[in-house]
């Protein structure tokens, strides 16, 4: 996690021993342990909250996307046929107008 080797760990312990002295060393270690425990507890609590929030948002998003797909695809076959014929008619009209104007249509090879 911290990539601290044996040499670095010994150096840190020597510096702590010099700064705090042998009498306060157990007290400092105890307070450091408490601080680390509280930090881990807060970190795991935050992670749980984050997971809960993302878990709640994901199904709602998927449900919305699914319902919009079913609404658009739930039209009757008559409506779909009518929509297809309308789009074919508009494409044909555009091609006729382009031919009348002397323009090439997209279907013709260049």
Averaging pLDDT over every residue, what do you get? 76
The helix fraction, in percent, is: over 70%
Q: What class, by secondary structure content?
A: mainly alpha
C-alpha Rg, in Å?
A: 36 Å
Low-confidence stretches: none
Described by the principal axes of the CA atoms, the overall outline is elongated
What count of helical segments does DSSP give?
2
Main β-sheet: number of strands, strand sense, barrel status? none
**Tally of strands:** 0
Notable traits:
110 residues; 2 helices
Question: What features would you describe in this structure?
Answer:
This protein has 2 helices and no strands. The longest helix has 68 residues, at 6-73. 84% of the residues lie in helices and 0% in strands. The mean pLDDT is 76. It has 110 residues and is mainly alpha-helical. The radius of gyration is 36 Å and the shape is elongated. The chain has a domain at 23-59.
């Amino acid at each position: 996690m911290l990539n601290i080797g044996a040499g670095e760990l010994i150096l840190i312990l020597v510096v702590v021993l010099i700064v705090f002295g042998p009498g306060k060393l157990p007290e400092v270690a105890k307070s450091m342990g408490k601080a680390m425990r509280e930090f881990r507890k807060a970190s795991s609590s935050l992670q749980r909250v984050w997971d809960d929030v993302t878990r709640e948002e994901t199904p709602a998003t998927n449900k919305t996307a699914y319902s919009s797909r079913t609404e658009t695809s739930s039209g009757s076959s008559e409506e779909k046929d009518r929509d297809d014929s309308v789009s074919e008619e508009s494409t044909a009209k555009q091609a006729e107008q382009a031919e009348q104007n002397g323009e090439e249509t997209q279907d013709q090879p260049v």
